[in-house]
Design goal:
single chain; two-stranded antiparallel sheet; 55% helix; mainly alpha; 5% strand
Length: 153
């Protein structure tokens, strides 16, 4: 069973969720600048996927200090979430299900054709991308995971 976040931590994350969501356009802009690529469109993030993938492959992410890694991780989370929501719908939320494997984390859920329990953790995918996993592979795994989750009844 995953570690349980105290109620006050969940409440604080819930309170911060609108701000986190509101940061998405700036996060995408910052990511493009940091990777020296063309701007990322929130309306069509898929268009930037090849450029982000190549830039990450050539970036020395393992040499980043912890604060810089967190900065990049957060922006990659927004990028991955933008692609997932573009492909599948859904929205950011805080996972409140105590038995859920992502309890207390910002996740993407509320997919129109999946059960309410279907959630994706963009932070895990962002961390894997920073560790060298190709974004296309990670997104294909997310797509497969969503296809394998129970449909809404």
């Amino acid at each position: 069973m995953p570690d349980q976040e105290p109620r006050h931590v969940i409440a604080r994350r819930q309170a911060g969720l609108p701000r986190f969501i509101g940061e998405a356009p700036d996060a995408l802009r910052d990511l493009a600048r940091a990777l020296s690529i063309d701007p990322i469109s929130a309306d069509d993030p898929e268009r930037s996927l090849p450029a982000v993938t190549v830039a990450l492959r050539t970036a020395l992410t393992e040499a980043l200090e912890q604060q810089d890694r967190l900065w990049l991780l957060t922006r990659l989370m927004h990028f991955i979430a933008a692609i997932v929501m573009h492909r599948h719908g859904g929205a950011w939320r805080v996972e409140e299900e105590p038995a859920g494997r992502f309890h207390g984390r910002y996740v993407i859920g509320g997919f129109p054709d999946r059960s309410a329990a279907a959630v994706i953790d963009p932070a895990a995918a962002a961390a894997a991308a920073m560790n060298g996993e190709p974004l296309e592979v990670l997104l294909a795994e997310i797509d497969a995971d969503l296809r394998g989750l129970p449909q809404r009844s």
